[in-house]
Specification:
Elements lengths: L4 H16 L3 H8 L3 H13 L18 E5 L5 E5 H14 L1
Antiparallel strand pairs: 1-2
Helix pairs in contact: 1-3
């Protein structure tokens, strides 16, 4: 199934939100998106498989604390450092 232009735009908005570090309301205010519209698209896009997966190279500092989130399906998400933990929590809460 082809993704609509609007769905593609909102997928990009959701990706920006995930890395913004802002609350949902603050992000919506900044972007000029109604929270209800944001929530609608968040639910709709969660139902659809993502079109591609991006791999990102990371550098791990020695001695940085490591955090892991183990999902019910056996998948494991790991991050380094306290800032990574905050982002991990925001992503998990949005799922």
């Amino acid at each position: 199934m082809a993704e609509t232009k609007r769905a593609g735009e909102m997928r990009q908005v959701m990706a920006e939100y995930e890395v913004s570090g802002l609350s949902r309301r603050a992000f919506c205010d900044k972007r000029g998106v109604a929270v209800t519209t944001f929530d609608y698209w968040r639910r709709e896009l969660a139902k659809q498989p993502t079109r591609s997966t991006k791999l990102v190279a990371v550098r791990i500092a020695e001695g940085a604390p490591r955090f892991a989130l183990v999902l019910g399906n056996g998948r494991r998400i790991e991050c380094e450092g306290e800032s990574g933990l905050g982002q991990l929590i925001r992503v998990a809460e949005g799922a």
